[in-house]
Specification:
The protein is 41% helix and 18% strand. It is α/β, with parallel strands linked by helices and 285 residues long. It has a single domain (30-283), classed as Rossmann fold. It has an eight-stranded mixed beta sheet, with helices on both faces. Helix 5 (111-129) crosses helix 6 (144-153). The model is unreliable at 2-16 (pLDDT under 50). InterPro entries: AB_hydrolase_1, AB_hydrolase_fold. One of its GO terms (molecular function) is hydrolase activity.
Amino acid sequence: MTNHQKQKKDLRIVLFLLPFFALIFCSNDSLEGEEPIQSVTLPWNQFKIHFLSNKCKDKKRLLVLVHGSPGSSSDFITYLNNKELQDQFCIFVPDRLGYGDSTNEKSFPNIFQQGNVLAKVFETYISKQSFSFEKAIIVGHSYGGPIAIVLSMAKVPTFPKNIQTILLSSPSDPNLEKLHWYNHLANIQIFQWFLPKSWIFSNEEMFTLKFDLEQLTTTLGNSSLNILSIHGENDQLVLVENVQYFTKSKLNIKHRFQILKGENHFIPWTSFAEIKSILIAEGSK
């Protein structure tokens, strides 16, 4: 087996073990809170969106955590259960379209559709519950990063004007997006018979991501978003050079970035304590 083949095999194993990362890497740094976690499913047009949430009444800060590709709301369960985060935030952790308990009969490989459906569902839910927030932090991991930007730009009346977007290991630069041989292989129907549905949907998202990122750059235009990019130095799935894109593209957004030395693509779990501290610090501003 070549080194390249071994890396791909190791990657498949890591993706399969993602749900266990949250338990293994986060448990030592996570004091579990006592708030009950509720499961909510809401319709929007022909879609339904499922998300998890803690106790939100009387809280003034909203935290939305958007998973990557593939993934589900369970990816962020340790964040949702953490006492320090519960004390400060109302937390929404959705299953994106195509995954988990949201509409999942087919894939929805478009970051704008994904983000805008989340915006409509959260707008309806916040209004129905009569929540009122002073600040929102919208976090996206990996493919969830561009979706977090779309959600941050959506004009949601029930969202506060003060919105902070945090990108974890997120693609930003369309010029860095390239399809690989295994993407084309996984796009062949006979091979899809052997793949989990979520992997097929994830692969379809990769085929449209470059174009979506180009469109996102245009859509951002003169937007005054406040974005913090956090990236692992040794990320082999989404290159660390992505953190430079918003600066060199000279957009009007306020952009900061932080590179975590020695870390890889899976920083939501391997760097849980550090990211939790960043969330708490940003929420206090």
